[in-house]
Automatic annotation (TrEMBL):
Coiled coil: none annotated. InterPro entries: 5peptide_repeat, PA_immunity-related. Signal peptide: none annotated. SUPFAM superfamilies: Pentapeptide repeat-like (SSF141571). It comes from Virgibacillus tibetensis. This is Pentapeptide repeat-containing protein. The lineage of its organism: Bacteria, Bacillati, Bacillota, Bacilli, Bacillales. It comes from the Bacteria. Transmembrane segments: none annotated.
């Protein structure tokens, strides 16, 4: 099993009020201390929004752009966040659980102490992110983009990474051995120090043009 990365959990009070997001909150660009559940947030474009100490449950995000967002101590549980735009955000102590992040955009974001747990994140964009203490656990990440990202203590545990793009990203210290993929877009010079299974190693060798002799 892939060695677990120690990640700080969101610091959230055990009991918080149900919160209804109002126009006034959005105008102030600050939402804090509460549970937002069973609702839809749609057609929102806000720069430098601050989300702090929140739980989102069964929330659907439609046509939402929160560029330069600051998200701290937040849980997204069973949310539909497909195509949400959190580009260039600063995101710290956040968990996404059983959520849909297909096509989500975190490009250029700073990620610290983040967990994606059992999420659908196909075609999600993580290019140019700076990621430290981040875990992707049992996620589908087909064609996800990690182009020229920085990884430090990043874990991929039993994820589907088929056709993911990690070109320009150092995989030193990254363990992909529990993940599945038929093909990765990679920079072979960045593979040094990456842990893979024997089967994956054969695939990489074939990608280098080597002829594998059986027996």
């Amino acid at each position: 099993m892939t060695k677990k990365v120690k990640i700080d959990s969101p610091r959230i009070m055990e009991k918080m009020p149900i919160l209804e997001i109002t126009d006034a909150m959005l105008e102030e660009a600050y939402i804090s201390m509460g549970i937002v559940e069973d609702c839809e947030l749609s057609n929102l474009t806000i720069d430098k929004l601050c989300l702090d100490k929140l739980i989102f449950k069964n929330v659907t995000f439609v046509n939402v752009t929160f560029s330069n967002v600051e998200i701290t101590d937040v849980v997204f549980e069973k949310c539909n966040m497909a195509n949400v735009d959190f580009s260039d955000g600063i995101i710290h102590r956040v968990e996404l659980k059983q959520s849909k992040f297909t096509g989500g955009n975190l490009s250029g974001a700073t990620l610290r102490n983040i967990v994606f747990d059992s999420c659908l994140a196909d075609m999600a964009t993580f290019g140019f992110t700076n990621s430290k203490q981040v875990a992707f656990r049992e996620c589908s990440m087909i064609k996800a983009d990690f182009y020229e990202s920085i990884f430090k203590n990043v874990q991929f545990d039993r994820c589907n990474l088929d056709q993911a793009n990690v070109a320009g990203t150092s995989l030193n210290g990254i363990d992909l051995s529990s993940c599945t993929f038929e093909q990765l877009v990679i920079s072979f010079e960045q593979l040094e120090g990456c842990t893979v299974s024997a089967e994956q190693a054969i695939g990489f060798a074939k990608g280098l043009g080597l002829i594998i002799k059986e027996g």
